[in-house]
Amino acid sequence: MDSSGAGERLNPVALITGAASGIGAATARRLAARASGGLILIDMDERGLSAAADTFDDAPERVSTLAFDVADPDRWRDAADFIGAQYGRLDWAVANAGITHAAAIADQDYEDWRRVCAVNLDGVFLTLQTAMPLMRLNALGGSIVVVASAAGLKAEPGIGAYGASKAGALHLARIAAKEGAPDRIRVNAVAPGGVETPMWRGVAAFQELVRETGSEAGAFARLAELGAPLGAYASADDIARAIETLLVDPAPITGATIVVDGGYTL
To answer: Are the C-beta atoms of 174 and 255 separated by less than 8 Å?
Structure first.
């Protein structure tokens, strides 16, 4: 355990959920050189986790890939035991795993509603519930970033489950920030707007734009023209840089939400 009490954090260990692709994979690549104590990567996509780990230019000696559903409390209990036994500490955590589903409230299938909320909100709760007790053991505390969404800040039709779950995640991060402060645990959030990630491939409207424009790049450009005053969507690495800063910068910032949306919520 870290007993220095001040100064530079030695051999930090980082945990990232949703690490097989998109923002999670980009964050893992950026933290690989910083998390000298080890990386714990979580996602349901076991093959994707292995592929993401293979992209690290400067990986720590220990990289663990745990393939499970972030909404499963039993698997989180196993993960907590594993981290305690194998790493003995946790310094940084990124609650990034998320899914989306588009439907009007009147047409929303309840099972789809529950699944989106389970991953996007219950998954954040379980990540916090696992990470915070481990971080309390560090004299320097720890830092957590919740990946929410600009959709949790602005009402849009057709994304009730996604928007509500991300709004809930934002408020949960603020509550966790207050609860963690006495133990020097900082909890912040990022709220991306449109981001060029594989999640869009499951959205029917996006696939229609791909057919119209002839490419995913064209579809993203069309979406950005319609919804971002800056006229551009973020890359996964844009969001990963914001996450990295919130994690590693020791400034007394907690309970904050960094919006990276090209002006969407203005």
So the answer is: yes
pTM: predicted TM-score of the whole model, two decimal places: 0.91
Question: CB atoms < 10 A from the CB of 157, how many?
Answer: 9
User: Among residues 87, 110, 162, 233, which one is catalytic?
Assistant: 162
pLDDT per position as a tens digit, 138-167:
999 999 999 999 999 999 999 999 999 999
Domain with residues 13-195+235-260, CATH architecture: 3-Layer(aba) Sandwich (3.40)
Over range 78-93, report the average pLDDT: 97
- Which helix (H) or strand (E) segment is 249 a member of? none
Q: DSSP readout, 173-236? A: HHHHHHHHGGGTEEEEEEEE-SEESGGGGG-HHHHHHHHHHSSHHHHHHHHHHHH-TTS-PEEH
Indicate if 162 belongs to the active site.
yes
Band the pLDDT of 51: cuts 50, 70, 90. Answer: very high
Report CA-CA distances (Å) from 31 to 13, 14, 79, 216, 219. Answer: 10, 8, 20, 28, 30
